[in-house]
Amino acid sequence: MELSRQNDMSKKIAKFTISFILILVIIGVFSFSRPQEVSAAVTLIANTSAAGFGETTTAGINTTGADFIVIGLAIDDGYNGTPSDSKSNTWTQVSNTYTQTNVRVRMWYTRPTSVGTSHTFTVPANPIGSIFVAAFSGVNLSTTDQQNGANGFASSLATGSITPTQNGALLISLLGINAVGLPISINNSFTLIDDEEFVSGTNYGGGMAWRLQDPAAAINPTWTRTNTNGMAATVISFKIFVPNRTAVMWFQDDDEI
Fold first, then answer.
1. Interatomic CA distance for residues 134 and 49, integer angstroms
2. Given Cys at both, which of 5, 30, 90, 135 links 63, Cβ 3.0 to 4.6 Å?
3. Which domain holds residue 63?
4. Host H or E run for residue 26
5. For residue 26, which phi and psi values (nearest 5 degrees)?
6. Could you count the other beta carbons within 10 Å of the beta carbon of residue 207?
C-alpha cells in the first residue's frame, strides 16, 4: 500500500513538472511570436515648453500618473549638457543627434520614479535653444526601438523612414529650426505637442509631436514651416510593454478518471 502511494505521488510530481515546462514553452512562444496589442490607455497627460538664452526652466506642470516622460531640445550644436527636473529623475539620452546650420535636435526620456504637481524641467549651463516636454501615462516603456533623422535647408523636411518592430509603438518626432518659421506642422497623423519660435540672438526654435502606430509599418513624417532655412529633425519609436495573455492549462488526475 505504501509503495502504491509513493508511485502515485511520483506520477503526480512528474505530471506537474511536465505541465509546468509546457506552460513555460507556450508562454515563450506567445511572447516571441504573437503580435503585440495596442495599449489603448496611452495618454498625453501634460506638456510644456520654454525657450531662451542660458539656463532655461519650464513652467511647472502636473505629471501625476505619468510613467514615461520625454524631453526634446532644439539647441545649439555645441551644447553637451543634460537636462534635469525638479523631481530628480534619471534621464537617458537617445543616442543619435541631427544638426543643420548650428541647430541640433537631441532627446532624453525617463521612466520617472517621482512625479506630481509643480514639476519643472531645466536645461542647465549656457544653451541657446528650446526645450519641449511631454508626460505620458499607460506607456510602461519597454525600450527604444527605431530612430532616423535628417537635416536640410528647406521649407519642409522628412525625418527619414522607420519601421517600428511592434504594433502600437509610441512615436515621437522633434524639429529644430534656425530662422523664423512658425507656424509649423507635421503630417502622417502626428499631433503637435508644442512649438517655439526662433528668436535671433536668443534661441533656436522648433516643435515636438507624437502618435501611436498600429499596425507597425514604415513611416516617414514630414515637417513643414513657413519659410526656407536650416532645419534638423528626428523620429523615434518606443516599444510599449503589453502583457501577454496567460495560457492556463488543466490536467486531470488519473484518480479522477
1. 9
2. 135
3. 43-240
4. helix 2-33
5. -65, -45
6. 29
Based on the fold, state whether residues 22 and 101 are members of the same structural domain: no
From start to end of the chain, where are the E strands? 43-53, 56-57, 68-76, 84-85, 92-93, 98-100, 103-110, 121-123, 128-137, 141-158, 169-177, 185-186, 191-196, 205-213, 222-240
pLDDT in tens, 182-228: 999 999 999 999 999 999 999 999 999 999 999 999 999 999 999 99
Q: How far apart are CA 170 and CA 41, in angstroms?
A: 12
**For position 80, what pLDDT does the model report?**
87
Residue type, 61: I
Burial class (CB in 10 A: 0-12, 13-18, 19+), 132: buried
Task: Give how many domains the chain has, as a whole number.
Answer: 2
Q: How many C-beta atoms lie closer than 10 Å to residue 240's C-beta?
A: 26
